[in-house]
Amino acid sequence: MTDVDTWNNVRYRDPYTFQKAEDFFSDFDAPAQSWVKQPTSISYTKQDNYDKNKLLDVCYRGRIFRFDTGGLLLIQFLRPRVWRIRFNEKHIDSSFFTDYNTRTIVRKQGKSLIQELDHAEDLDWDLELEGDGDSSNHLLLMSVVKKKAPNHPQGYVKQIGVKLWIQKEPFRITATRSVGASPAFFAMPDDSAHSAAWTPPTEEVEAVIWQTKERGFQYGNGAVVLSVERTPTARYMGFGEQGGTKFIKDQTFMNYFNFDNMRYYNIYNRGPKCEAEPLYHSDPYFIEVNANPSLQSQVATFIDNYSQVCMDVGRLDWLSIRLATRFNAFAGLFFAGDNVQDIITLFTSIIGRPRLKPRYVLGYHQGCYGYDTRSKVENIVDKYRHYQYPMDGMHIDVDMQDNYRTFTINLNTFPDPPSMFKKLRNQGVKCSTNITPVIANVPCDWYNTLNEGLKKGYFVMDERDMDPSVADSDHIRYVQYGKGNKYTTNPSNVDTRATFNFGRDNYNFRESFNNKLVPFHGGVDYGGGKGSPGHYPNLNNKAVRHWWGEQYQNLFDNGLEFVWQDMTSPCMGQNYGDMKSWPFRLMLEADGWSGDPSMKGANGEMMKKKAIEIWSLYSYNLHKATYHGLNRMETRKGKRNFIIGRGSFTGAHRFAGLWTGDNSSTWDFFNISVAQVLSLGLSGVTVAGADVGGFEPPESGEQFCDPELFIRWNLAYSLLPWYRNHYVQKGKKMFQEPWAYEEFTQSQAWRDMNMPAGDWALYRAVHPIVRYYIRLRYSLMQLMYDTMFENLLHGLPIARAMIVTDPLDGSLFAANENYTRSQYLVGNDLLHAPCMYERNKRDRRKLYLPAPSAWYQFNLRAFDNDNSLGVPLQGRVAGGKHVHYTASIKACWHQDEDRLIPEALPYVTPMYVREGCIIPQIPVLDFVPDRNDPEQAKIQTPITLNIYPGRVLGARELKDSPYCYDMYLDDGVSRDSAPEDAYLAGSDEIGHTNPDRRDRLRGAFGDHDARSKFTHVRVIQTVKRVGKGSGSATKFERQLTIKSTWDKYPYVERDIGKTFRVVFWHEPGARIDYNNLATVKDAAVVDKTYFDDQAKATVLRVPLQGKGEQKSLTITVPYEQEE
């Protein structure tokens, strides 16, 4: 064995390293592992829970139990239907537990979290413990809600939330609660529920909703494994941004360990199809659905741990789910809900919801690593305007920096940046730039960030926890993975280090290694000599976070509008650390527990942990430091700030949106990208998405994204929350702007490359198709913004999986499960089913319309200079059916006549709307206006309310799910327009919240500057049967009520005008009385009501507000229809 092999093997044996989940579980399960403890029994004693007859704070709504192995288990209810299990093998006494949460949780301490949420939700509940005597086989821990009952002698009645049955021996935990039966798909023959498509449940039963295995708890050497039972029908979804070909995942391992994993193939070499591959972001959270198909019960699991989290989702044992943490304490949170929407709301009440983001975030964005001069950036924006594309964001990469110095601008290549940013802003384009957490350490007199950081000691120092098997720095090795291969790098070997534009990085590793007096020396290599060695700010320190936020001032003074946070792990060249990030044994401050005094030393200094033990904490603090820094700027006072970040940990969505890392232009990457967004949405991530078109080129093939793939990717993302075309030039790709495909066909390069003549129409079609769907997105901007606003209220995402919106359709867990990976809804009612596969020879896709709702093919349009309302509705399609849809790209371009066929554009991707829904539409603008800009404030965006036919709902349906739409009008940029915290925390209306409650909650869950300066418009449609019509027809009435439930935005008329245009779309076969088209109560019709014969729709204009209750008005539209 060579010396190299010897030290490689020493490194591989080090327990402080990444381990594949399957290897970890295999090691844990190996026979005769003396270090693994598996408790047999558990008990309760008062002395573990009290100090001098006073209940410990950590036992508020919980209790501590003792295993026969000596370990202590803390089980605590955070909400009546949310419980947390905590364990640390070092805690041999209850005094070792503290009440401090990780930074992931929205409040610092468990007790204050519970009390704040109780106050916000006006909830009174408590904990009860039974069975602590010797005669009982179980300890019973119950959350008990005190439901107000004025006629009851006590003023309330007790209602059990969840019961935790803790079996003493053999140890097991079983959770039960009262749940309703799942609604029957067909309605009972009851006149009171006439025409109902389903029958609501009537009774509840107590049922098992979650259960551990017997003796399903193991621990040793800092690791913990919890094994949970599963039923054969259970399905699992969520899991954050993990790859894989399915939205619902099963029989797989999961590795959560932030990793700069370009192309998603470095651990397993299977690419984006691999679910187990650790990616840039860690979100160890999933929802179990369909475990009890006959019951309204779903359970979510979240593992709150910053180190490596491993999961075995039915891989080794199909009837078992195993949850493991490699280091630190185990903290598992479990959420019990009636449906997925209920789960998301519960989860985000604990983890938090994002701050309200600027409206322009929902626009179209362009970025490129290669826009390396001011003229290039301006030329790209000019081209978008020339070709009349809407566009809101320009992302300038590290190209703008002076020699890759973070926070700087190269004035040679980007002269006079204020004038550049001003020019772009006048064109409606807001700019971000790439900010990485590496500070170039090449000496420079004027680089204040470096010099000040050194002077104040603000960088991470090179302090290591030494592997006792390694004699000295010469034998240090860093572990790496590439294309499925595990190997090491030698930081002492100068010859293998990156060569930058100033030469090779020849620092002396021996002198800096484990020297607490010098900053850790790392660096980032962007390839081709681009990048720099550098130091890293100690962002796990509060003072440094504050300082980091101040560094943005110059960029924003020059005109920057938002931040692109990159290399967040932080990512490094492979000679600087393990897995292209920190050395695993580098010591970092461990402030991940929000001021926990047990994490401080004798002199008050922050305790340090090995980097691998708190692996994802640094990136979390990076996003937090940036967000708060922007908010503190005087020049940003009152403005909403936005960060698009590459990766972090659960809870970072409170500060930033997420893009899913460095993908490439392949169908495999596109194929997983919609499911990634839908999965992230389940954990409250509002704004998320992949680089549209792919960042990197394929490893072999064209120097640009295949045109068919590019079209399909753009169309799929045309209604997803984050829509950014982002790619790399630098000799890798020629172009990726949609209009560039058109220019390419007219260029000499087309001829020089001998492009196939048969592809001419495909390339020519890119520009008009993509442009049309970007325009369609902008016409639906109010819809997208309303769903983003709603996210603050209940946590539901903008783009929603069908399982979220259509929980009654059990086929989504069975025969139609495959459709859940690509089909999604914007809000609750607009369904998009993009084509996800290459179809050069086949232009049809099969899609599924979820039951029990009926659907109409989407009929609104976004053509240029088109004043039409849309096209007439086609026939209603019953839910629960498959549709074979022709979605042809080639139909848009006439190959022989070489011309566009515009009427084919709306049919390139399938879209449907739910019966009875309300869809707002606005005129297409080049950009989202900044209402704080005096000129842009003059731009009006009048709103058309499109009202689709519905059916007569039963009484219970009207109560539970009426045809309702909530619209939120504000300036789109100010923080004070965001809803106040009491409203966010659960109050039905802000006006119902008393001042004391509002003041107490301000800032707890939302924005300190929120003042509720918005107008909430609620639109409700009902359909009534009113009598017999002519012949065999029946008379119906559609009633539409428009009311302002909250009206605090003073500029509604300035922004949208004085009226709503209301369009009632009619189903084919509806008979309209032209002499009695509509009547309006509590308001006057502004213009004459008319019937648009071309669109088959009744059209009228009404004031924004009426004279009825809550400034309401009601429109009645009669019609006749054969039933």
UniProtKB/TrEMBL annotation:
Enzyme class: hydrolase
Segments crossing the lipid bilayer: none
EC number: 3.2.1.20
Glycoside hydrolase family 31 TIM barrel domain segment(s): 354-786
Domain Glycosyl hydrolase family 31 C-terminal, first and last residues per copy: 795-919
Catalyzed reactions: Hydrolysis of terminal, non-reducing (1->4)-linked alpha-D-glucose residues with release of alpha-D-glucose
Domain named Glycoside hydrolase family 31 N-terminal: residues: 156-312
UniProt entry keywords in alphabetical sequence: Hydrolase
Pfam families, A to Z: Gal_mutarotas_2, Glyco_hydro_31_2nd, Glyco_hydro_31_3rd
GO MF annotation list: alpha-1,4-glucosidase activity; carbohydrate binding
Top-level lineage group: Eukaryota
One record GO biological process: carbohydrate metabolic process
Family membership: Belongs to the glycosyl hydrolase 31 family.
Annotated protein name in UniProt: alpha-glucosidase
Lineage, uppermost ranks: Eukaryota, Fungi, Dikarya, Ascomycota, Pezizomycotina
